[in-house]
Structures are given as C-alpha cells and as structure tokens.
Amino acid sequence: xxxxxxxxxxxxxxxxxxxxxxxxxxxxxxxxxxxxxxxxxxxxxxxxxxxxxxxxxxxxxxxxxxxxxxxxxxxxxxxxxxxxxxxxxxxxxxxxxxxxxxxxxxxxxxxxxxxxxxxxxxxxxxxxxxxxxxxxxxxxxxxxxxxxxxxxxxxxxxxxxxxxxxxxxxxxxxxxxxxxxxxxxxxxxxxxxxxxxxxxxxxxxxxxxxxxxxxxxxxxxxxxxxxxxxxxxxxxxxxxxxxxxxxxxxxxxxxxxxxxxxxxxxxxxxxxxxxxxxxxxxxxxxxxxxxxxxxxxxxxxxxxxxxxxxxxxxxxxxxxxxxxxxxxxxxxxxxxxxxxxxxxxxxxxxxxxxxxxxxxxxxxxxxxxxxxxxxxxxxxxxxxxxxxxxxxxxxxxxxxxxxxxxxxxxxxxxxxxxxxxxxxxxxxxxxxxxxxxxxxxxxxxxxxxxxxxxxxxxxxxxxxxxxxxxxxxxxxxxxxxxxxxxxxxxxxxxxxxxxxxxxxxxxxxxxxxxxxxxxxxxxxxxxxxxxxxxxxx
Length: 537
Prior knowledge:
Serine Threonine Protein Phosphatase 5, Tetratricopeptide repeat
C-alpha cells in the first residue's frame, strides 16, 4: 500500500505495531514491522502485541497540548504550521492536521477491531482465559475512547466494528452521532464489567475499570446525557480509589507520575526504550529560554480568565493591579491570582530556571524569550506554556518521558458538578465536588453553583489538556469566544513610557458556524461515495 490518508487503508491493515505519535504526519499504513496474518494469532503474546499497538493510537503529546492552540486558550505561534488554519477558520477537507488525526484514531480503531475479530483464533491452551477476557475488554475501552475523539472532532463518522476488506470499507456510510455515542458507552460499559480495578508490575498504566467508567462520564457529558454522566462520575467518586494531588503544579512533572489523581494516561519513556516511546513536549512547547520552540502559546484571554485570590474576576476584584510588569515592580496584572496561573503559564516576572522570565519585546528585554516577530520560535504573545514543561528535560529537549494525562480525578469532579447542574440538581454533593477542585489550590469555595463558575473552572483547571475545544463546541459558545482581531498577550511599558499590549499582526481568529464539526478528509470521500461531508464543506 502507498502512504495515503484514508480509512480504507487503516481498516484493512494487517498488524502494524508502530503508532503515529505526531498527528501532523501522514499515517504510513504499511509498517515495516507488519507480519503475516497467517502466522499470527497463535499465542497469547500475539494478543498483547496487537493490544499494545492499539494503545499507541491514544491521543498523544503533540495533539493533547496543542489542541488548546485552536481555542480561546492559546494560539499557534507560526502561521505556516498546519494547525494554524483551524484557529482562523480557513481549514478545508484537504487540511493536513485534521486528516492526520483522522488517520491516527481510525488506525487505532482498526487495531482494536483486528484484535476483537481474531483473538478467538488463538488455541485455547495458548492463552489464559481470564487474560483473554481482559484483553478483549481493553480493546473495547480503547475503541470507545478513540471513537469519542472522532465523534467529538468530526461528528457523524463511519463506525466499523469488525476487520474489513477493501470492498467492505468502500461500502461504509456515516453513522449518526447518536449511534456513535450509543456504541461508545456500550464499549465502555462492557469494558468496565471485566477490567480490573488496578494493576501491578509491568501492567500498571493499562486501562482499568475506573478509567472506563470515567470515560463513560465524559462521553455521556459530551452527548448531553447528563444523568448517565452524573451516575458514572459518582461511581468513580464513591470508589474512593482516587484523590486530588496535593500539589497542582507537581502533577504535570515527573514527580507527579504516580499520583492518585491520574486515572488514565498515555505513557512515555525516554529513548532508552523502543523508538517512538518518548515525547518532545519540552522541545515543542517549552520556552525559548531553554532553546525550545513554543509552537503553541497561551493568549491573553486565558490569562484574564484566572480569578484573583479572593475568588473574584479581574473586572471586580480590588486585588487586581492592571500595571504592566517591569523589573522594578513587585506587582502586576499577574499578581494575587489563582495559583494555577503560575503553574500553567510563564509570564513576565515569573521565576524560571534560576532567572526572571522577561518576555517583553527585544530592545526592552535582552532575554532569549523576548518577543521578536522575526523569530518564529519565540512566543508572539510573550506567554509560554509551563504545564508539563519539566526542567529535567531541558538538556535533552526531544527526549521526554513525562506521561500525558488523559483522564484525572479533578475532571471527574467537575464533570459530576456540571452534569448535576444541567439536571437542575444544584445540591450539596455537586457543590462539594466542585469546591474540592478549588480548595486544592487554596481558592475560595463558592456557596452555590453557576454556569459561569462551572465553565470557567474547567477552563483554568484543565488548560492545555486538550479539552477546551470540545467544551466550547458542546456549549455552543465558540462563535462568541473565538473571534478576535488579533491574538494578544502581555502588557509592557514601551520606550515612550506607554503601556502597550503585545498582539500578533495578521492573526485574526474566526469561528464560522461550520467549525463546530471538522470536515471529513477529501481523500475519504474520493474513495467512498457513500460518505457524506459535514455541512459547510
């Protein structure tokens, strides 16, 4: 097969064991490690290899962090980056980034279907029956979570549930979003009924019963099935297995990898392991201070969303100081804020790697992080991502091993609070779940829940964890929060002693109505006339 972007190839591939970590690269559907179907499925290890290949297709570091650059949380720093068109609304069915995500997730779906369709071929004496049942459950968990990504991004996609021939793949049509959510929840329910509550040894990190139930809560919330979401989240809460990590900032470092807050993560290891098991989080998203590239950066809209320490927004709190930071000042607009701001974002005046971060424009600041519109690897907003940027990796930026959290307990608490609020059940349990998240970082509790509280809390708690795009689309607020004339960032005092806000030239951000669903890749429609394109494309 040729390198090409199509579900057809992904659905009929035999057994590739190398996953695509960076979704801006086209999926090679013929891995050099492919083996013959006739010689496979003879022993338990074949099922393990098949399953591990499917795990590699879960959302990875490049996309989870980078997706926030397509929202009101962040911006893509380089206009020629293939993600940029998704923030200015000019993407189309040919656009490479969405096509890459489609390929990667559907390749994972294909791998789960191959396992589910072939595991019974392994002779009874060659596989432990209890483990066999677990492998099937893990595959269903993975298929459910992969379809959750696909329906969230593209809406009514095809829904193959078995290995397919070329002819069968060409006959597929779009499933409805209702059918997709039904199947996702079914897969996760069936997985939860079999998966263990925990693992030991080398199996630690695989999907658990609680991971399946937590993702069921997310799927139900996205589908607007609020009672199902609330019940699933409550199951995880009542299990008393997970708790909030005491140090929010540490959670996203190597020191936080064994936290009781983490329910499911995409696991990475430095390159002493097999090639492709490491990540480039530091190199791609770190600050230029450490010769990283910061290709996705926070924007002012997110910074302004962090409340003051008194629990009030910057528009009403007496603690807010609108002054731009200078080295002579002790207070600025980033002072006295929710501590999550400092743990998530690098800003002028922050302490970083033994120095004071000073991203004011070049000529005012002499630091390497200074805004310089002639350097594509320096943040155009003056803000850089701090979450997941562990200085342990600064000397080997492309060889990171930090695990990427895909589900954590704070999200479960917030999903529970949101689902209960949507049901009109604004009760003490929902309030307590919500306030746990705020109390963890020393923020004041609230006496009652409001929609604004719930939405803003998700935004600041989960920034750069890949969820904001799904949230603003399911809340139908993207058309209000996304369009701005330019992506802006820090305030600074210029040579004329005037306060100026740094804004990226020619960076108007748009969100046309069609952007609520991304288009199916044109290559898919060219190969399969039964598929229908999303509205507006």
